[in-house]
């Protein structure tokens, strides 16, 4: 691990032909994304920052070939990591974006592209914070860590095709990349960025149900995890959820009895309301963060 990182001694010196990326704020999502990207391209020059030294230490184990620094060890860590990077991924919490980008912006190269993964921070507001840099807004999800994420990509109008292609190639190491208009990000968040958690919630409820019906927690968990894995793989190979559901359902059988319970409880409405709630919250956060950024 390179923990000493200064502008005069860039990490991976002599590798200027390689794409360099900096990850500013590398927690759950930043780590998942950078892990996915790095596993597909081991030659990348990667710098990553955290707030605390303890998080930097833990991150170094997850991303052994990256140069990791923390603000606790060096107040200039973000600026130094971002210096000269081709792409700077912004992975701090949405409400920290204003201070973090305002601190970084003066030391960024004009060619550096800022890639924000924050929910509820609009491109126009990021552009206010970093007026000389091009901005791409993305919305990833956590399976990016194992190359099975979904990453929505919304470039601002100034970002050229070549840059979008390079970023798309980088992100494709983390999963499926889908180019969207920024106005579509709330919907994507509602079904995928946040949506992955709905599947985890369903898994939790099914494990609890199995335990209530007499299985041990360990057995129930093992079965539900394997069932989710099998369902996901099958759906991926044959992407028609309705057909897959029907293939499980025998006339007068057990599955229809279970499915009817979901339908009677209003599952379609619940799923729609959940996606809407997440999407609406994304829009609300855009307004809140815009007020913070623009005063
Ligand atoms: N989690 C998810 O599934 C998704 C999250 N997002 C977005 O990703 C962003 C990060 O969320 P998430 O990963 O969950 O949050 P985490 O809290 O897990 O990660 C935040 C990271 O930022 C670091 N940090 C805090 N302050 C600073 C700072 N001033 N400079 C540099 N690093 C700092 C933290 O370090 P330390 O650990 O030391 O505090 C931590 O590494 C959010 O904007 C969120 O909207 C988008 C899609 C999905
Ligand atoms: O919960 C959040 O706000 C973030 C954005 C999408 C997933 N997690």
Automatic annotation (TrEMBL):
Transmembrane intervals: none
Gene Ontology MF annotations: pyrroline-5-carboxylate reductase activity
UniProt enzyme class: oxidoreductase
Database matches in Gene3D superfamilies: NAD(P)-binding Rossmann-like Domain, ProC C-terminal domain-like
Keywords: Amino-acid biosynthesis, Cytoplasm, NADP, Oxidoreductase, Proline biosynthesis
Residues reported to bind NADP(+): 24-29, 50
BP GO terms, sorted: L-proline biosynthetic process
Domain called Pyrroline-5-carboxylate reductase dimerisation: residue spans: 182-285
Positions of NADPH binding: 78
Reactions mediated catalytically: L-proline + NADP(+) = (S)-1-pyrroline-5-carboxylate + NADPH + 2 H(+); L-proline + NAD(+) = (S)-1-pyrroline-5-carboxylate + NADH + 2 H(+)
A cellular component annotation (GO) from this entry: cytoplasm
Annotated metabolic or biological route of this protein: Amino-acid biosynthesis; L-proline biosynthesis; L-proline from L-glutamate 5-semialdehyde: step 1/1
Pfam annotation, one family: P5CR_dimer
Subcellular location: Cytoplasm
Protein task: Catalyzes the reduction of 1-pyrroline-5-carboxylate (PCA) to L-proline.
Protein name, as recorded: Pyrroline-5-carboxylate reductase
Organismal lineage: Bacteria, Bacillati, Actinomycetota, Actinomycetes, Micrococcales
Gene name per UniProt: proC
């Amino acid at each position: 691990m390179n923990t000493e990182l200064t502008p005069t001694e860039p990490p991976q010196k002599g590798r200027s032909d390689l794409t360099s990326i900096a990850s500013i704020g590398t927690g759950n999502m930043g780590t998942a994304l950078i892990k996915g990207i790095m596993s597909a391209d081991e030659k990348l020059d990667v710098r990553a920052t955290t707030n605390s030294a303890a998080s930097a230490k833990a991150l170094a184990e997850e991303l052994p070939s990256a140069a990791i620094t923390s603000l606790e060890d060096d107040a200039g860590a973000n600026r130094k990591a971002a210096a000269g990077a081709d792409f700077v991924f912004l992975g701090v919490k949405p409400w920290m974006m204003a201070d973090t980008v305002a601190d970084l912006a003066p030391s960024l190269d004009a060619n550096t592209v800022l890639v924000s993964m924050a929910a509820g921070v609009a491109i126009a507001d990021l552009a206010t914070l970093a007026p000389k840099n091009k901005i791409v807004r993305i919305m990833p999800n956590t399976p990016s860590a194992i190359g099975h994420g979904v990453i929505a990509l919304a470039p601002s109008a100034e970002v050229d095709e070549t840059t979008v292609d390079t970023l798309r190639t980088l992100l494709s190491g983390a999963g499926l990349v889908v180019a969207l208009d920024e106005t579509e990000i709330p919907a994507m968040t509602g079904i995928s960025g946040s949506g992955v958690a709905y599947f985890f919630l369903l898994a939790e409820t099914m494990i609890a149900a199995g335990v209530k019906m007499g299985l041990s927690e360990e057995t129930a968990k093992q079965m539900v995890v394997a069932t989710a894995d099998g369902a996901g793989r099958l759906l991926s190979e044959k992407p028609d959820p309705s057909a897959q559901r029907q293939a499980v359902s025998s006339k007068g059988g057990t599955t229809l009895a279970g499915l009817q319970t979901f339908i009677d409880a209003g599952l379609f409405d619940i799923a729609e309301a959940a996606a809407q709630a997440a999407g609406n919250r994304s829009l609300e956060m855009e307004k809140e963060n815009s007020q913070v950024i623009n005063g």
